[in-house]
Design brief:
Two copies of one chain form a homodimer.
Chain A: E1 4-8, H1 12-23, E2 27-31, H2 37-54, H3 63-67, E3 70-72, H4 76-80, E4 85-88, H5 94-107, E5 113-116, H6 124-127, E6 136-141, E7 150-155, H7 161-173, E8 177-180, H8 190-206, H9 212-230, H10 232-237, H11 244-258, H12 271-283, H13 289-313
Chain lengths: ~325, ~325
């Protein structure tokens, strides 16, 4: 399944979605309220595509072939013309979203699915008054979606079930791994789990139990080794002879005992940040942040190639 | 650095430690209150070593060479004779530990470090009254330590700083990645972070927001892809142009808003377990749990080989 997609907002997230759709064969039109932005995005995309081709991350297509599927659109109406999907990537501001979504709903054909990349605003807050609110949802990626498969499909109370079904199919079709939420919730799924873990990490450091690097060791060289190919539920399901119920009956009391000491929130930007920042800057000076981001992207692509190979040789 | 190590308790955890130490060149003596246990452990170890050699997880040594470094000990005193390190792997029962540790402290030479594999008991609870309590600590692995590098070094209030320094050196020497806690805390570091994440995962499923598989997607195909080579602090440090402080100033409000809705604990073994178990058993029937555990172990070894290669080619 492929078709036409409108990328609404052509910054960091919009251009990443453009690559994800075009790689899967979709015809992509990029629009932005700043007229020069789609052209700039396409120039950036050309560099990214060359890297992705070199890293075997284009499903065997050439960078040129993927690039040829993308065009700038001079108007929002032009971008939406004949689109099966519109992906909105505007700033995280409810007023901006409300105004833009009125336009999206007015201009897009009734069958076009309208999806927002927002990470922080539930869809009911900018779709309630729209005539076509049944075809509206959040589709929140982890950036960049052309590398990280997980994305969150979040319905407003009025999003039609058929919209969710089609959205899931389309996301699977372009190679994403969609989380299909049953109802909206602030933070969705991924930021809630990340938040829960980070709250404990900041508490541990603030209370002087361990270092920032110790937290990273515990996840990087410990828990995430299994999480990175199973997730936390399958991990515990395989960690007791009788599966997940057996695991919880054996070990829940350990976790239940810890819960009362997790009720206090530490201000991440408060005193503890001096400790966190100082320890991070010893390991990675500020002037090396950008270089390390490039290292991260290379490691991420290498890990994804490993997963593809392991899934094929050992099973997924 | 290598020497002699006493494995005290030769079950699942003890035999895994035996492999980790022997692979690094240590002379290993296995003892157990059940006289036949060390012999049985060594038979199991032989099978494990053959697999590990085939998977290139023995640092280039042969299974036979590693096996030759291990022997059963007929008495606890014999196991401890000349040992630089004793690793205790008794049941998670304070009374059992207290009694065993009195013997350990009485029999071991003053320079021997005494370490417990306990995951659930802080070291002060079984070392307070010991004459040699300054050389006692917890060294908690994620099983099996010969595959998963992270382990937690946890001092009692009276553990000597020099003991912690030497323990860290010894663990690094056998290829572990030690977390060095500054003071003891129930749950240590890893189970606290795993618990925080699981609490939120169970809440999301119990409240009907998403499925068990959705949670696993969010971690496996989302967050853990970066956590598995960076950890959560380095991940956020690289997720804003100005580093970790910049990240928290930009995004903390999103997480702070979620915190109040994370104060309610769901009983993991309560109603939600019917949902969790049913969904897991659809994906993995109970009779396939063991087969899937073997798949997990192969995938874990493949991931560890990938990390070694990626660290060498791209950097760590």
């Amino acid at each position: 399944m492929s078709g036409k997609v409108a990328i609404v907002g052509s910054g960091l997230i919009g251009r990443a979605w453009a690559i994800a759709f075009a790689r899967a064969g979709w015809e992509v039109r990029l629009w932005d309220p700043v007229a020069a932005a789609p052209g700039r995005a396409l120039a950036t995309i050309e560099g990214l595509l060359a890297d992705l081709e070199a890293q075997d991350m284009l499903n065997g297509a050439t960078a040129a072939a993927v690039r040829a599927r993308m065009n700038p659109a001079g108007t929002l109406a032009g971008a939406l013309e004949g689109a099966a999907w519109a992906q909105e990537n505007a700033p995280e501001d409810v007023a901006v979203k409300r105004s833009l979504w009125r336009e999206l709903d007015r201009l897009a054909a009734p069958a076009t699915i309208l999806a927002s990349s927002t990470s922080a605003i539930v869809p009911s807050r900018f779709t309630e008054d729209l005539a076509g609110r049944g075809r509206c949802l959040v589709c929140h990626p982890i950036n960049p979606p052309y590398l990280v498969p997980a994305c969150e499909l979040v319905p407003a109370p009025w999003t039609e079930p058929a919209t969710m079904v089609l959205a899931e199919q389309i996301m699977r079709g372009i190679g994403q791994a969609p989380i299909v939420m049953k109802k909206e919730l602030d933070g969705f799924v991924m930021n809630r789990m990340q938040g829960a873990l980070l709250e404990e990490a900041f508490r541990l450091v603030a209370d002087g139990y361990c270092s920032v690097e110790d937290v990273d060791i515990g996840i990087r060289d410990g828990l995430a080794l299994r999480w990175a190919f199973m997730g936390p539920f399958e991990t515990i399901d395989l960690n007791a002879p009788g599966g997940v119920r057996d695991y919880c009956e054996r070990y829940q009391q350990i976790y239940a005992r810890l819960f009362p000491s997790m009720q206090r929130r530490v201000d991440w930007s408060g005193e503890v940040m001096d400790v966190v920042e100082a320890q991070r800057r010893v390991r990675l000076p500020a002037e090396k942040l950008q270089e390390r981001q490039r290292w991260r992207d290379r490691r991420l692509m290498a890990l994804l190639r490993h997963r593809r190979k392991a899934a094929s040789e050992i099973g997924s």
